[in-house]
Structure formats: structure tokens, C-alpha cells
């Protein structure tokens, strides 16, 4: 594991960007420090900054290098190590334990990202299903309402709320929704039998 990998696993983009003075909105947007602008066009992701205005895409090391006009990526690594107290020994190979911990963190990060994508698909599909089921509204007051329409009456607002929460929550908040996401996934698997 290189010092570059150690830095990237030790600190996230938001922490670095805020530490170096960027004001980041709740939605993760900020004024790009690499060109003049009045409206934020830089999106802060966990591992990178991407500017939709000037096209800059940098990780924590590239961000630091560009921000401070440093010649080499290793100079950015040294600055991050010092500024954020990362305690990375530059020039010394990591121990087997450190490599193992790094690999574990990478696996956990990938597992979370996969779950997050799957959870969002589940919630978004549920929301669209509730919207589609509104089409089963009775044509007249005398007609018996379809069960799907009745179900959507009771659950559309809830589906919208869940999607809104998922979008606005941080990682811990999203993980707290795991049981709800599982229940909705089970519902979607079993709904063909019920309806």
C-alpha cells in the first residue's frame, strides 16, 4: 500500500475541502476554488471534487496539489499528512497489519456503496410504483376501487418521504434505514402474489 493510498483511505474529500476553506452546502455543492464563479458548481463526493463548470475532477491529493500550487503529488501527501495529523510514515513501507486494515476498509467502502445503490433503486422503484398505482383510480364513485389504488393512497406520501430522507441523510442516516429498505424490497418481491 502506497502513501497515496494511505492518505486517500485516511481522509475524505469533504474534510479536506472544508479544512482548506471551502463552504459546502448540505447537498454537497461549493464554489469551485479553481475558477471564478458566483453560483456553486463544484460537487463534493466522498473521494473527489468534480466541478461541472470548469471540468476539474480531483481526489484529495490532486485537490491539495492544485490548491497550493505544489509541484508533485508527494508534496500534497506531505502537506495533508502534516495539516490533518494523519501520522503516515512517508518513505517507510506499511506493516502487514496496516495493509490488512486498509484492504478491510476498501472492502467495507465498496460493500456500502453497493448497498447504497441497491437501496436507492429499491426506494425509487417503490415511489414510482406508488405513482403508477394511482392510475387504477375508479372511473366513477360506484366502481369498487382497485386494491393497488387504495394502497397507493396510503403509501405515496411515505414513499416520497423515504426518498427525500435517503437523499438528505449522511451515511449513518442511510444505514439506519436498512430495515425499512429490506421491508420494501420484500414487499416488492411479494407484491405480484398479492396484487
From TrEMBL:
Pfam families: Zn_ribbon_DnaG. Residues 29-81 form the Zinc finger CHC2-type domain. It comes from Ruminococcus albus (strain ATCC 27210 / DSM 20455 / JCM 14654 / NCDO 2250 / 7). GO terms for molecular function: DNA binding; DNA-directed RNA polymerase activity; zinc ion binding. GO terms for biological process: DNA replication, synthesis of primer. This is DNA primase. One of its GO terms (cellular component) is cytoplasm. It comes from the Bacteria. Keywords: Metal-binding, Zinc, Zinc-finger.
